[in-house]
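Key result, reporting period 2: structure in, sequence out.
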């Protein structure tokens, strides 16, 4: 199975970008470049703007001010991007049928569907679950189906919003193994997490957000072991950021 896709949407450049809802500023003058390579991990407290930033990267949320470009283009269709939400919705059908639906929606040739579904299920460790009703799977298994469904379109950019939230350690490890496998195939992963251990295990670059702003960016080990800003020092030491 070929997971490598053209990275035409990369780099993604956010230039002084803001998102507001009425009088509330959700993202506040964010400047950030998402480049090919190891996963980029967004960390920060609830309400810091991580989910909104993922929606902007996907193209689901337009900026209120500032600019975003995908591969140098200001208006790029999200054909090679995929976003998995923290609580994905399973279609009322089998795990395999969820993937068939995704392949059809992505315009993948029907002749390849059977082999693609088998490959995707194998990638996420659910090769024996094709006929299981998706909504009866455990939370971790549903999240793996959601990952496989997102990968059905062969994305160059995969965005994950707290993909292992509320999962037990075994299910979390399964999700992290999938993320590593996907990243090793050349897919750029951008994900949010509250788990600093997970950020260290998976991250290439870490972006710390607070109150809608990017307050520090750095390589995973450097930012987590030697943070520079007061906010980063407080967050990595377990203090509450308010």
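The corresponding designed sequence is given below.
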């Amino acid at each position: 199975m070929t997971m490598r896709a053209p990275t035409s949407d990369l780099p993604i450049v956010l230039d002084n970008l803001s998102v507001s809802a009425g009088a509330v500023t959700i993202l506040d003058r964010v400047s950030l470049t998402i480049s090919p390579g190891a996963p980029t991990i967004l960390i920060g407290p609830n309400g810091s703007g991580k989910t909104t930033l993922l929606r902007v990267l996907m193209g689901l949320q337009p900026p209120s001010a500032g600019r975003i470009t995908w591969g140098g283009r200001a208006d790029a269709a999200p054909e090679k991007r995929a976003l998995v939400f923290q609580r994905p919705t399973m279609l009322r059908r089998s795990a395999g049928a969820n993937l068939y639906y995704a392949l059809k929606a992505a315009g993948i040739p029907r002749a390849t569907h059977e082999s693609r579904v088998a490959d995707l299920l194998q990638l996420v460790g659910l090769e024996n679950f094709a006929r299981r009703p998706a909504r009866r799977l455990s939370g971790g298994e549903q999240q793996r189906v959601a990952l496989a469904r997102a990968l059905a379109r062969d994305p160059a950019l995969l965005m994950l919003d707290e993909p292992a939230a509320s999962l037990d350690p075994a299910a979390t490890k399964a999700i992290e193994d999938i993320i590593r496998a996907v990243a090793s195939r050349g897919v750029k992963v951008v994900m949010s997490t509250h788990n600093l251990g997970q950020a260290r295990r998976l991250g290439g670059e870490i972006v710390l957000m607070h109150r809608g702003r990017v307050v520090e960016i750095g390589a995973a080990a450097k930012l987590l072991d030697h943070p520079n800003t007061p906010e980063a020092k407080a967050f990595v030491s377990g203090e509450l950021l308010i």
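The domain at 12-89+155-236 is CATH 3.40.50.300 (Rossmann fold). The first helix runs from residue 50 to 58. This case is discussed further under Risks and Mitigation.
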